[in-house]
Amino acid sequence: MPTAIELASPWLKERTFASWREEFDRRGYLIFERVLSPSRVAEIRGALAPFLERDLTGRNDFEGLKTNRVYALLAKSPLFADLAIHPLALAFAEAELGQSCLLSALLAINLHPGETVQPWHFDDGGAKVPRPRPALGISAFWAIDDTTESNGSTEVIPGSHLWDGQIVEGAVRPADFTSKAAPNPDSDFGNRPDAVKLVMPSGSLAIAKGTLWHRGGANLSDLPRLIITPQYCAGWVRQLENMSLAVPAELAEKLPERARELIGYSIHPPFMGHVDGVHPKRLLQAQRQVGS
Fold first, then answer.
1. 3-state helix, strand, coil in the chain (%, to 5)
2. C-alpha angle 71/121/190, rounded to 5°?
3. Distance CA 272, CA 267 (A)
4. Fewest beta carbons less than 10 Å away: which of 26, 163, 230, 262?
5. For residue 74, how far is the Cα from the chain centroid?
6. pTM (global) more than 0.85
């Protein structure tokens, strides 16, 4: 069976995967433009539409008080599994985190006009391992809408994945998860001359190391900005989303095999993740036999 790296070759632009990894190691992020076709993007929009129509906004400054977040996407439609197991994203996740990596989260983020900047953070910060260190997570950002200079494109600080434990101005604080007050949009709030906005057309993919400092930008346009972000973690790190509860077994059984492995129906060697001493995929096999 071809590896994820081999399957990713159509998007590598005649460069070797090793050269892309060298750039990834140096900058901490990559952008691949127009990976998804417009028809595929339209399908994704259609699958998300019923959940975005509920217009549930964030509960705090970190989620975004003018932002829709749709969590547990694998339980919403199997269509989203294709983004989680896309070979281009998966090639970098597996190369960084190992074949036993897991899907830590899979959510849609829809920034409405007037949304303010998010606090600076890095995505694998939940793993309390001192920096500098290798990334324990990889985040992918699929642009469903064009992400532009003005509509809230994700901002990154190139090279910050290599930093030690220094804290940047405007970094996320515990209060940001409880505060209902957004930052003053007229203040600098941690604006940095070395920050770069991930500007890319619809259908594009950005990949970032879990140690890279970044934030969602302010939406100064008059239209929303929609992305989908699968986030991966090392096989021994706890996932952000509790996938075994978010994706019931009867739905997991219908997912592609690699997607099932990513949500936890797999083993991190030698036996981390077992269920009552056996491989967790045996649970799905037993369920299939009962239902037959």
1. 30, 20, 50
2. 125
3. 6
4. 26
5. 13
6. yes
